[in-house]
């Protein structure tokens, strides 16, 4: 579906599976929910949305519609990402207690998140940033 698939942080996926269990999702559907979460995170990475940003969901669902995904799949995606938002809202980011740190990574791209400013120089560095977002959120 997306050209580049990212690796979802292990702790995020573990927490997501625990939430699926708590919400009574059939175990036979877990792989579908995990797949949609991976696709959503890859979408956010590719189109530069922050995964906690609820405004990104309509764009993701529209992209699925353009890819001829069924209405059932689009509803399953909305439910999956709703659970994802629930998960990350139950683990709010910690308030910064000091001035921003600058992490210098190898090519030019700037992104600010919480108490960290990331100065990037290569596409590969975005993967590091993406995982950093989840370290701050979860």
Short descriptors:
single chain, 138 residues, 2 domains, mainly alpha
Summarize the structure in words.
- This protein starts with 9 loop residues before the first helix and ends with a helix.
- It is mainly α.
- It has a three-stranded mixed beta sheet with strand order 1-3-2, covered by helices on one side.
- Helices cover 55% and strands 12% of the residues.
- The model is unreliable at 96-124 (pLDDT under 50).
Coarse structural class: mainly alpha
Count of discrete domains = 2
What percent of residues are in strands? 5-15%
**How confident overall, as mean pLDDT?**
76
Task: Tell me the series of helices and strands, N- to C-terminal.
Answer: HHHHEEEH
Instruction: Give the uncertain stretches in residue-range form.
Output: 96-124
Helix content: 55-70%
Number of strands: 3
Q: Give the biggest sheet.
A: 3 strands, mixed
How much is the radius of gyration in Å? Answer: 16 Å
State the end-to-end distance: 26 Å
Strand order of the largest sheet: 1-3-2
Question: What's the tally of helices?
Answer: 5
* Shape designation: globular
SSE layout and pairings?
Blueprint (H helix, E strand, L loop, with lengths): L9 H13 L7 H18 L8 H11 L4 H19 L11 E4 L3 E6 L2 E6 L1 H15 L1
Parallel strand pairs: 1-3
Antiparallel strand pairs: 2-3
In short:
This protein has five helices and three strands; from the N terminus they run ααααβββα. The protein is mostly helical and 138 residues long.
């Amino acid at each position: 579906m997306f050209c580049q698939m990212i690796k979802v942080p292990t702790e995020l996926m573990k927490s997501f599976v625990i939430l699926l269990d708590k919400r009574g999702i059939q175990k036979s559907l877990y792989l579908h929910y995990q797949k949609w979460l991976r696709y959503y995170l890859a979408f956010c990475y590719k189109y530069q949305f922050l995964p906690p940003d609820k405004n990104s969901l309509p764009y993701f669902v529209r992209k699925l519609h353009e890819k001829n995904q069924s209405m059932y799949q689009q509803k399953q995606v909305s439910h999956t990402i709703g659970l994802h938002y629930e998960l990350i809202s139950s683990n709010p980011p910690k308030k910064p207690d000091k001035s921003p740190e600058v992490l210098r990574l190898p090519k030019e791209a700037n992104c600010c998140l919480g108490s960290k400013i990331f100065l990037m120089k290569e596409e590969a560095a975005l993967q590091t940033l993406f995982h950093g977002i989840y370290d701050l959120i979860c």
